Amino acid sequence: MSWRTVVISSCCKLDYNLGCMVVRGENTKRVFLDEIAVLVIENTAVSLTEYLLSELIARKVKVIFCDEKRNPCAELVPYAGSHDSSRKIKMQMSWSDDVKNAVWTEIIAEKIGKQADFLEKLDKQRETYLLRQYIRELEFGDTTNREGHAAKVYFNALFGMEFTRSLECPINAALNYGYSLILSICSREITAGGYLNQLGIHHDNAFNAFNLACDLMEPIRPFVDGMVYYEKPTAFETEQKHKMLGMLSDEVRIDGTRQTLLNGIKLYVRSVFSALNDADVSLIKFCKYEF
Predict the structure, then answer these.
(1) Per-residue pLDDT tens over the stretch 62-75
(2) Closest CA to 63 of 27, 37, 84
(3) How many CA atoms lie within 13 A of 34 on its CB side?
(4) Is 85-283 assigned to CATH 1.20.120.920?
(5) CA torsion, points 238, 240, 242, 248, in degrees to nearest 10?
(6) pTM of the entire predicted model
(7) Which CATH number among 3.100.10.20, 3.90.580.10, 3.40.50.10490, 3.90.226.10 corresponds to the domain 4-75?
């Protein structure tokens, strides 16, 4: 089982040899490909061989490329991630609106519930009560957008009444970076499962190639929020980004087991597909974590 998050920060060449990724820089290092779950290439001066890329794709390694500011800007997505992807896509296209709305309602209830749990831990009683009330008011498919109302209360409670998600500030930079990592991991599991990322259950943006990952990542967002809240970054540079990457190895609980967040997301995404294919929302297994 792959488990390592590998970050390439300095100028080097990456190639493949005998089941390993060889990192040729000031020193030469080898990393077994079967151990790598996520490869983040931060430096734009890194070169790598097509053979290595092919081997990374074959092992379903999520490869994330960063821009000159070391922010994620692209990822490697294979054309097919499963031997039966045609069958999976046909199943995906047959999911009924009722089933998709039922799953979306469960996802949003879980997300708001986690937000409320975090605010309760911070002893923000009024805001906690409001979020619990939004869960009680949640309608099928969240047609009244309780998610949006909860988000406003939640972020203002965490970061102040002047805070908005559109501000250019270190907190939003950290949130966006963390969210992009979670989005990439969800995307990896969707592709590995043989499904199409473009076809979401709620998100339906014609210009978004990751609609389904945007749907499934929602209950994981508070995990990122908690990390950013406790760090309270006054700047968001390489050191803070590497700390954020470390969250993928943090422990969560899912279906009675303890897993890394990376593996927990895998189990969660698979459970959502089971719920959609069997029209049974009770099959969804959410990650539980301590803030």
Answers:
(1) 899 999 988 888 88
(2) 37
(3) 3
(4) yes
(5) -150
(6) 0.88
(7) 3.100.10.20
